[in-house]
Write a structure and sequence with these properties.
Blueprint (H helix, E strand, L loop, with lengths): L2 H20 L7 H17 L4 H44 L3 H9 L6 H16 L1
């Protein structure tokens, strides 16, 4: 194997390793994906479009995608926890006081709405008399 052949093997490995290090914390935006695909294509073309380079470039793209998905899964529980904390905090803030609940229970409309309506009807009949 000549030095030129070794360079054709080494180049895609070294460049793909750099891409993995660069994109290990990627967010997966369209712009990032476009840049990544362009760089992968350049590596493939610059390494002589060999079958080996094709496999390395393809595996690199898949690995970066897997790393992105794992990163999203690790972030998801934290985001859910933060969402729940803010939701419960809002509920606590809007929670009525015990006194407000007791005052509401004392109002006549709290019981049966039909009974409340019937009492109002009786009161209006008594007023008419």
């Amino acid at each position: 194997m000549t030095d030129e052949d070794l360079k054709k093997l080494y180049y895609p490995i070294a460049e793909c390793w750099k891409l993995i290090r660069t994109y290990r914390e990627c967010t997966g935006t369209d712009k990032e994906a476009d840049v990544l695909l362009t760089k992968l294509q350049q590596i493939f073309e610059k390494s002589g479009k060999t079958e080996f380079a094709k496999r390395i470039v393809f595996a690199t793209g898949e690995e970066i995608d897997r790393m992105k998905r794992r990163s999203e899964l690790r972030r998801a529980p934290d985001e859910i926890d933060n969402m729940l904390e803010s939701h419960y905090a809002a509920l606590e803030k809007d929670k009525p006081s015990e006194q407000a609940i007791e005052d509401f229970k004392r109002k006549p409309h709290y019981a049966d709405p039909y009974e409340y309506w019937r009492k109002k009807q009786e009161e209006s009949k008594n007023e008419q008399k």
